[in-house]
Amino acid sequence: MKVYYLLGILMVAAVGRAAAQNEEIEDSVENRQVKKVNVTVYYESLCPFARDFIVNQLRPTLRGNLSRYINLELIPYGKTNRTSDYNGNATFSCQHGPEECYGNLIQACARDFIDSDALYAEFVACYMDAVHPPASRRLMDEAAEACATPAGLAASRLRTCANNTFGVERLIHYGRLTDAFATPLRRVPTVAFEGVDDEAASEAARASFAGEVCSRIEPPRPAECEDVKIVQRNGGVTVRTAVWSFLWLVLPLIRADRLFMW
């Protein structure tokens, strides 16, 4: 009986120690100085693929604890074309028509009026969720009204901005940022991490934004990362791909008799 009693004490102690260690790990994740992942999303207001990413990938992730690890910048320009007349007046042409240009202007203006990054991202997601092609100017104004209120912003300010030179200047600014990143922008949306144009990372983010963010967070990772698939990368190439590439090159060089000796 004494042996069983002693074993029971040891088991309880071991479980308690493991639980304490887990609590210490969780506490270190919550309280350590967080190194944020820099994310830039290049998109346009009526692109269905951008809408799907922002509404179904970006917004749910930002509403959770992972938002603490993300430094986000949204660039509402995409593949917009800009021309200027002799007087320097800019004219925009967008993939999904003039309504898309107007939506880009609305979102460019909102960035200047909404100080909080989180509130701005919520505004963009709300707007993208409410407006999709074919969209009328009236529908876009109604969406701006509905989405601006939770952000503490009067939609009338957005409409005024989007219809004057200030809004044009803001959209030109985002156009320059887009051109500096990639001229021309090859795909919409493009999700860039740390300012790098990596198509594989962008596609992975569109499939699982939380997973791609988690893969870039230094361990110990937050609890949210336990339920997502994390792909380890090495200079933009997955470790699995790198290993198979190495074996593909090396195996033909190995003598058959040495290979069978293994």
Explain what the structure shows.
The protein has a 3-stranded mixed beta sheet. A two-stranded antiparallel sheet has the order 3-4. The chain has 11 helices and 7 strands. It has helices spanning 2-31, 48-62, 98-113, 117-130, 137-148, 155-162, 165-181, 199-207, 209-214, 239-250, 256-261; strands spanning 37-43, 70-76, 81-84, 90-93, 190-193, 233-234, 237-238. Mean pLDDT is 82; it is low at 2-16, 18-29 and 235-262. The chain folds into 2 domains: 37-231, Glutaredoxin (3-Layer(aba) Sandwich); 236-262, no CATH class. The chain is 55% helix and 11% strand. With 262 residues, it is mostly helical. The radius of gyration is 25 Å and the shape is globular.
Low-pLDDT stretches are 2-16, 18-29, 235-262
Query: Into how many domains do the coordinates divide?
Result: 2
For the record, the CATH architecture of the largest domain stands as 3-Layer(aba) Sandwich
Instruction: Please provide the ordered H/E string of secondary-structure elements.
Output: HEHEEEHHHHHEHHEEHH
The CATH H-level homologous superfamily of the largest domain: Glutaredoxin
Largest sheet: 3 strands, mixed
Number of strands: 7
Oligomer: single chain
Radius of gyration: 25 Å
* H/I helix tally: 11
Strand percent estimate: 5-15%
* Order of neighbouring strands in the sheet with most strands: 2-1-5
The name of the CATH topology of the largest domain is Glutaredoxin
At the first level of CATH, what is the class of the largest domain?
Answer: Alpha Beta
Q: What's the average pLDDT? A: 82
Q: What is the global morphology?
A: globular
Give the CA-CA distance, first to last residue. 51 Å
Helix content: 55-70%
Q: Quickly give the structural class.
A: mainly alpha
